[in-house]
Amino acid sequence: MAAYIFKRILLMLPTLFGVLLVTFTVTQFVPGGPVEQYMAEAKRVGGGGDTSSYRGGQGVNPKRIEEIKKMYGFDRPPAERFWKMLGQYATFDLGKSFQQNKPVAQLILDKLPVSISLGLWTFFISYLVAVPLGVAKAVRAGSRFDFFSTILVLVGYAIPGFVLGLFLLVIFGGQLEWFPLRGLTSANWDELSWPSRIVDYLWHITLPVTAMVLGSFAVTTMLTKNAFLEEIRKQYVLTARAKGLPERRVLWKHVFRNSLLPILTGFPAAFIGAFFTGALLIETLFSLDGLGLLSYESIIRRDYPVVLGSLFVFTLIGLVTKLISDLSYVWADPRVKFD
Protein backbone atom coordinates (compact mmCIF):
# COMPACT_ATOMS: atom_id res chain seq x y z
CA MET A 1 0.00 0.00 0.00
CA ALA A 2 2.79 2.43 0.87
CA ALA A 3 4.51 1.74 -2.45
CA TYR A 4 1.24 2.31 -4.31
CA ILE A 5 0.62 5.64 -2.55
CA PHE A 6 4.20 6.75 -3.23
CA LYS A 7 3.87 5.86 -6.90
CA ARG A 8 0.58 7.73 -7.21
CA ILE A 9 2.09 10.81 -5.59
CA LEU A 10 4.97 10.71 -8.06
CA LEU A 11 2.48 10.49 -10.94
CA MET A 12 0.79 13.66 -9.69
CA LEU A 13 3.87 15.70 -10.50
CA PRO A 14 3.86 15.23 -14.30
CA THR A 15 0.08 15.70 -14.30
CA LEU A 16 0.37 19.04 -12.53
CA PHE A 17 3.24 20.02 -14.80
CA GLY A 18 1.25 19.15 -17.93
CA VAL A 19 -1.87 21.04 -16.82
CA LEU A 20 0.11 24.16 -15.94
CA LEU A 21 2.21 23.98 -19.11
CA VAL A 22 -0.82 23.73 -21.41
CA THR A 23 -2.68 26.51 -19.60
CA PHE A 24 0.37 28.79 -19.49
CA THR A 25 1.00 28.20 -23.21
CA VAL A 26 -2.62 29.01 -24.09
CA THR A 27 -2.52 32.26 -22.13
CA GLN A 28 0.44 33.44 -24.21
CA PHE A 29 -1.72 33.43 -27.36
CA VAL A 30 -4.95 34.88 -25.94
CA PRO A 31 -5.46 38.48 -27.14
CA GLY A 32 -6.04 41.25 -24.66
CA GLY A 33 -3.52 40.32 -21.98
CA PRO A 34 -2.85 42.25 -18.75
CA VAL A 35 -0.81 44.91 -20.54
CA GLU A 36 -3.57 45.56 -23.08
CA GLN A 37 -6.13 45.52 -20.27
CA TYR A 38 -4.15 48.14 -18.39
CA MET A 39 -3.80 50.34 -21.47
CA ALA A 40 -7.50 50.04 -22.30
CA GLU A 41 -8.40 51.03 -18.74
CA ALA A 42 -6.00 53.98 -18.88
CA LYS A 43 -7.57 55.17 -22.14
CA ARG A 44 -11.06 54.83 -20.69
CA VAL A 45 -10.21 56.76 -17.54
CA GLY A 46 -8.32 59.37 -19.51
CA GLY A 47 -11.13 59.81 -22.02
CA GLY A 48 -9.13 58.21 -24.78
CA GLY A 49 -12.20 57.20 -26.78
CA ASP A 50 -13.38 53.79 -27.85
CA THR A 51 -11.86 50.85 -25.94
CA SER A 52 -14.19 48.16 -27.22
CA SER A 53 -11.31 46.40 -28.98
CA TYR A 54 -7.73 45.96 -27.85
CA ARG A 55 -5.26 48.00 -29.90
CA GLY A 56 -2.13 47.23 -27.92
CA GLY A 57 0.00 50.27 -27.28
CA GLN A 58 -1.23 52.33 -30.23
CA GLY A 59 -0.58 56.02 -29.55
CA VAL A 60 1.15 55.30 -26.21
CA ASN A 61 4.71 56.11 -25.26
CA PRO A 62 6.80 52.93 -25.94
CA LYS A 63 8.78 53.58 -22.77
CA ARG A 64 5.57 53.52 -20.77
CA ILE A 65 4.61 50.19 -22.36
CA GLU A 66 7.97 48.71 -21.37
CA GLU A 67 7.46 49.90 -17.81
CA ILE A 68 4.05 48.20 -17.68
CA LYS A 69 5.48 44.98 -19.11
CA LYS A 70 8.21 45.02 -16.48
CA MET A 71 5.64 45.65 -13.75
CA TYR A 72 3.74 42.50 -14.79
CA GLY A 73 6.90 40.51 -15.49
CA PHE A 74 6.29 40.31 -19.25
CA ASP A 75 9.73 41.72 -20.00
CA ARG A 76 11.10 38.19 -19.46
CA PRO A 77 10.91 35.29 -21.96
CA PRO A 78 7.89 32.97 -21.49
CA ALA A 79 10.07 29.97 -20.60
CA GLU A 80 11.80 31.93 -17.83
CA ARG A 81 8.46 33.10 -16.43
CA PHE A 82 7.08 29.55 -16.52
CA TRP A 83 9.98 28.03 -14.59
CA LYS A 84 9.87 30.87 -12.10
CA MET A 85 6.17 30.20 -11.59
CA LEU A 86 6.83 26.47 -11.00
CA GLY A 87 9.46 27.35 -8.41
CA GLN A 88 6.94 29.51 -6.58
CA TYR A 89 4.25 26.84 -6.74
CA ALA A 90 6.67 24.29 -5.26
CA THR A 91 6.59 26.40 -2.07
CA PHE A 92 2.84 27.08 -2.48
CA ASP A 93 3.51 30.71 -3.33
CA LEU A 94 0.76 31.38 -5.89
CA GLY A 95 1.91 34.88 -6.70
CA LYS A 96 -0.01 38.15 -6.57
CA SER A 97 -3.09 39.21 -8.49
CA PHE A 98 -2.54 41.75 -11.28
CA GLN A 99 -5.93 43.37 -10.79
CA GLN A 100 -6.42 43.31 -7.02
CA ASN A 101 -2.76 43.45 -5.97
CA LYS A 102 -3.36 40.77 -3.33
CA PRO A 103 -1.78 37.33 -2.87
CA VAL A 104 -3.65 34.73 -4.89
CA ALA A 105 -3.66 32.33 -1.92
CA GLN A 106 -5.39 34.99 0.20
CA LEU A 107 -8.00 35.62 -2.50
CA ILE A 108 -8.76 31.89 -2.71
CA LEU A 109 -9.07 31.61 1.08
CA ASP A 110 -11.37 34.66 1.17
CA LYS A 111 -13.71 33.20 -1.47
CA LEU A 112 -13.59 29.63 -0.17
CA PRO A 113 -16.35 29.94 2.51
CA VAL A 114 -19.00 30.75 -0.11
CA SER A 115 -18.07 27.75 -2.27
CA ILE A 116 -17.85 25.49 0.78
CA SER A 117 -21.28 26.67 1.89
CA LEU A 118 -22.81 25.81 -1.49
CA GLY A 119 -20.90 22.54 -1.69
CA LEU A 120 -21.86 21.27 1.75
CA TRP A 121 -25.56 21.91 1.23
CA THR A 122 -25.46 20.35 -2.23
CA PHE A 123 -23.56 17.29 -1.05
CA PHE A 124 -25.60 16.48 2.06
CA ILE A 125 -28.99 17.13 0.48
CA SER A 126 -28.04 15.04 -2.55
CA TYR A 127 -26.93 12.05 -0.47
CA LEU A 128 -29.74 12.30 2.07
CA VAL A 129 -32.29 12.13 -0.75
CA ALA A 130 -30.53 10.01 -3.38
CA VAL A 131 -29.48 7.05 -1.18
CA PRO A 132 -32.91 6.37 0.38
CA LEU A 133 -34.50 6.96 -3.04
CA GLY A 134 -32.14 4.45 -4.63
CA VAL A 135 -32.96 1.86 -1.96
CA ALA A 136 -36.71 2.44 -2.43
CA LYS A 137 -36.34 2.04 -6.19
CA ALA A 138 -34.43 -1.22 -5.76
CA VAL A 139 -37.01 -2.68 -3.36
CA ARG A 140 -39.81 -1.66 -5.76
CA ALA A 141 -37.91 -2.44 -8.97
CA GLY A 142 -40.21 -2.62 -11.98
CA SER A 143 -43.09 -0.85 -10.24
CA ARG A 144 -44.76 2.39 -11.29
CA PHE A 145 -42.88 4.19 -8.56
CA ASP A 146 -39.58 2.96 -10.00
CA PHE A 147 -40.59 3.94 -13.54
CA PHE A 148 -41.83 7.47 -12.82
CA SER A 149 -39.08 8.28 -10.31
CA THR A 150 -36.48 7.21 -12.91
CA ILE A 151 -38.03 9.57 -15.45
CA LEU A 152 -38.01 12.47 -12.97
CA VAL A 153 -34.44 11.80 -11.89
CA LEU A 154 -33.15 11.57 -15.47
CA VAL A 155 -35.04 14.73 -16.52
CA GLY A 156 -33.43 16.58 -13.63
CA TYR A 157 -30.04 15.19 -14.65
CA ALA A 158 -30.57 16.23 -18.29
CA ILE A 159 -31.33 19.87 -17.43
CA PRO A 160 -28.08 21.84 -16.96
CA GLY A 161 -27.78 23.49 -13.58
CA PHE A 162 -27.34 26.99 -14.97
CA VAL A 163 -30.48 26.61 -17.16
CA LEU A 164 -32.50 25.51 -14.14
CA GLY A 165 -30.93 28.30 -12.09
CA LEU A 166 -31.91 30.87 -14.72
CA PHE A 167 -35.49 29.53 -14.72
CA LEU A 168 -35.68 29.68 -10.92
CA LEU A 169 -34.18 33.15 -10.91
CA VAL A 170 -36.67 34.52 -13.45
CA ILE A 171 -39.78 32.86 -11.97
CA PHE A 172 -39.21 32.84 -8.21
CA GLY A 173 -36.78 35.73 -7.98
CA GLY A 174 -38.05 38.07 -10.67
CA GLN A 175 -41.75 37.55 -11.28
CA LEU A 176 -42.97 36.16 -7.95
CA GLU A 177 -40.23 37.91 -5.89
CA TRP A 178 -40.20 35.11 -3.36
CA PHE A 179 -36.41 34.89 -3.20
CA PRO A 180 -33.57 37.42 -3.64
CA LEU A 181 -31.87 37.78 -7.02
CA ARG A 182 -28.27 37.90 -5.84
CA GLY A 183 -25.88 37.53 -2.94
CA LEU A 184 -25.58 35.10 -0.06
CA THR A 185 -26.90 37.51 2.59
CA SER A 186 -28.79 40.78 2.74
CA ALA A 187 -27.06 44.15 2.90
CA ASN A 188 -28.14 44.64 6.54
CA TRP A 189 -27.04 41.17 7.62
CA ASP A 190 -24.68 42.52 10.31
CA GLU A 191 -27.58 44.36 11.96
CA LEU A 192 -29.78 41.27 12.23
CA SER A 193 -30.11 38.97 15.23
CA TRP A 194 -28.70 35.45 14.96
CA PRO A 195 -32.08 33.77 14.30
CA SER A 196 -32.80 36.39 11.62
CA ARG A 197 -29.34 35.84 10.12
CA ILE A 198 -29.98 32.11 9.79
CA VAL A 199 -33.34 32.70 8.13
CA ASP A 200 -31.82 35.32 5.82
CA TYR A 201 -28.97 33.01 4.85
CA LEU A 202 -31.32 30.10 4.09
CA TRP A 203 -33.58 32.47 2.13
CA HIS A 204 -30.69 33.53 -0.10
CA ILE A 205 -29.18 30.08 -0.63
CA THR A 206 -32.39 28.22 -1.53
CA LEU A 207 -32.39 28.91 -5.29
CA PRO A 208 -28.66 28.29 -6.01
CA VAL A 209 -28.62 25.08 -3.95
CA THR A 210 -31.78 23.85 -5.69
CA ALA A 211 -30.18 24.50 -9.08
CA MET A 212 -27.06 22.54 -8.07
CA VAL A 213 -28.79 19.67 -6.26
CA LEU A 214 -31.31 18.45 -8.84
CA GLY A 215 -28.68 17.51 -11.38
CA SER A 216 -26.63 15.52 -8.85
CA PHE A 217 -29.40 13.12 -7.82
CA ALA A 218 -29.31 10.83 -10.82
CA VAL A 219 -25.84 9.26 -10.53
CA THR A 220 -26.03 8.52 -6.80
CA THR A 221 -29.62 7.31 -7.00
CA MET A 222 -29.05 4.88 -9.88
CA LEU A 223 -25.74 3.71 -8.40
CA THR A 224 -27.44 2.94 -5.10
CA LYS A 225 -30.32 1.14 -6.83
CA ASN A 226 -28.06 -1.05 -8.99
CA ALA A 227 -25.74 -1.93 -6.09
CA PHE A 228 -28.74 -2.80 -3.92
CA LEU A 229 -30.32 -4.95 -6.64
CA GLU A 230 -27.08 -6.87 -7.13
CA GLU A 231 -26.86 -7.69 -3.42
CA ILE A 232 -30.54 -8.64 -3.11
CA ARG A 233 -30.06 -11.44 -5.67
CA LYS A 234 -27.21 -13.08 -3.73
CA GLN A 235 -27.52 -16.35 -1.84
CA TYR A 236 -26.95 -14.95 1.67
CA VAL A 237 -30.11 -12.82 1.32
CA LEU A 238 -32.17 -15.90 0.57
CA THR A 239 -30.56 -17.65 3.54
CA ALA A 240 -31.33 -14.71 5.86
CA ARG A 241 -34.95 -14.67 4.73
CA ALA A 242 -35.20 -18.45 5.13
CA LYS A 243 -34.07 -18.10 8.75
CA GLY A 244 -37.06 -15.87 9.35
CA LEU A 245 -35.26 -12.56 9.79
CA PRO A 246 -37.52 -9.50 9.39
CA GLU A 247 -37.39 -7.98 5.90
CA ARG A 248 -36.33 -4.58 7.26
CA ARG A 249 -33.37 -6.15 9.06
CA VAL A 250 -32.36 -8.11 5.97
CA LEU A 251 -32.44 -5.02 3.79
CA TRP A 252 -30.80 -2.45 6.08
CA LYS A 253 -28.40 -4.55 8.16
CA HIS A 254 -27.15 -7.01 5.55
CA VAL A 255 -27.96 -5.85 2.02
CA PHE A 256 -27.44 -2.13 2.58
CA ARG A 257 -24.12 -2.56 4.35
CA ASN A 258 -22.72 -4.77 1.58
CA SER A 259 -24.00 -2.50 -1.19
CA LEU A 260 -22.27 0.57 0.22
CA LEU A 261 -18.92 -0.13 -1.48
CA PRO A 262 -19.54 1.82 -4.71
CA ILE A 263 -21.20 4.62 -2.73
CA LEU A 264 -18.42 4.96 -0.16
CA THR A 265 -15.68 4.92 -2.76
CA GLY A 266 -17.33 7.79 -4.59
CA PHE A 267 -17.87 9.71 -1.37
CA PRO A 268 -14.58 11.71 -1.33
CA ALA A 269 -14.87 12.76 -4.99
CA ALA A 270 -18.52 13.74 -4.55
CA PHE A 271 -17.71 15.68 -1.36
CA ILE A 272 -14.93 17.75 -2.97
CA GLY A 273 -16.62 17.92 -6.36
CA ALA A 274 -19.68 19.52 -4.80
CA PHE A 275 -17.54 22.57 -3.98
CA PHE A 276 -16.45 23.17 -7.56
CA THR A 277 -18.70 21.33 -10.02
CA GLY A 278 -21.08 23.82 -11.59
CA ALA A 279 -20.01 26.51 -9.13
CA LEU A 280 -18.63 28.74 -11.88
CA LEU A 281 -21.97 29.23 -13.64
CA ILE A 282 -24.16 29.11 -10.54
CA GLU A 283 -22.04 31.62 -8.61
CA THR A 284 -21.88 33.91 -11.64
CA LEU A 285 -25.63 33.61 -12.23
CA PHE A 286 -26.57 34.39 -8.62
CA SER A 287 -23.67 36.86 -8.03
CA LEU A 288 -22.20 34.77 -5.22
CA ASP A 289 -18.69 35.87 -4.35
CA GLY A 290 -17.04 32.43 -4.34
CA LEU A 291 -14.28 30.57 -6.17
CA GLY A 292 -16.39 30.15 -9.30
CA LEU A 293 -17.01 33.87 -9.67
CA LEU A 294 -13.36 34.60 -8.84
CA SER A 295 -12.21 32.25 -11.62
CA TYR A 296 -14.66 33.71 -14.12
CA GLU A 297 -13.66 37.32 -13.41
CA SER A 298 -9.95 36.49 -13.49
CA ILE A 299 -10.36 34.92 -16.95
CA ILE A 300 -12.29 37.92 -18.25
CA ARG A 301 -9.72 40.35 -16.85
CA ARG A 302 -6.76 38.20 -17.95
CA ASP A 303 -5.55 38.06 -14.35
CA TYR A 304 -3.16 35.20 -15.11
CA PRO A 305 -1.76 34.64 -11.58
CA VAL A 306 -5.30 34.03 -10.29
CA VAL A 307 -6.19 31.83 -13.28
CA LEU A 308 -3.09 29.66 -12.97
CA GLY A 309 -3.04 29.70 -9.16
CA SER A 310 -6.66 28.61 -8.79
CA LEU A 311 -6.16 25.99 -11.51
CA PHE A 312 -3.14 24.64 -9.64
CA VAL A 313 -5.15 24.38 -6.40
CA PHE A 314 -8.17 22.76 -8.12
CA THR A 315 -5.97 20.24 -9.96
CA LEU A 316 -4.05 19.34 -6.82
CA ILE A 317 -7.27 18.86 -4.85
CA GLY A 318 -8.68 16.73 -7.67
CA LEU A 319 -5.64 14.48 -7.79
CA VAL A 320 -5.55 14.00 -4.02
CA THR A 321 -9.29 13.30 -3.98
CA LYS A 322 -8.89 10.69 -6.72
CA LEU A 323 -6.18 8.97 -4.68
CA ILE A 324 -8.41 8.96 -1.57
CA SER A 325 -11.27 7.54 -3.65
CA ASP A 326 -9.08 4.68 -4.85
CA LEU A 327 -7.83 3.98 -1.34
CA SER A 328 -11.43 3.92 -0.13
CA TYR A 329 -11.88 0.62 -1.94
CA VAL A 330 -9.36 -0.98 0.44
CA TRP A 331 -10.79 0.72 3.51
CA ALA A 332 -14.32 -0.38 2.59
CA ASP A 333 -13.33 -3.89 1.47
CA PRO A 334 -9.99 -5.29 2.76
CA ARG A 335 -10.13 -8.00 0.08
CA VAL A 336 -9.24 -5.41 -2.58
CA LYS A 337 -5.49 -5.35 -3.28
CA PHE A 338 -3.46 -2.91 -5.38
CA ASP A 339 -0.96 -5.25 -7.04
From TrEMBL:
It comes from the Bacteria. Keywords: Cell membrane, Membrane, Transmembrane, Transmembrane helix, Transport. InterPro entries: MetI-like (IPR000515), MetI-like_sf (IPR035906). SUPFAM superfamilies: MetI-like (SSF161098). One of its GO terms (cellular component) is plasma membrane. It is found in: Cell membrane. It is a multi-pass membrane protein. Its main location: membrane. The keyword S-adenosyl-L-methionine does not apply. The chain crosses the membrane at residues 9-30, 112-135, 147-172, 201-224, 259-286, 306-325. GO terms for biological process: microcin transport; transmembrane transport. Residues 112-325 form the ABC transmembrane type-1 domain. PANTHER family: INNER MEMBRANE ABC TRANSPORTER, INNER MEMBRANE ABC TRANSPORTER PERMEASE PROTEIN YEJB. Belongs to the binding-protein-dependent transport system permease family. This is ABC transporter permease subunit.
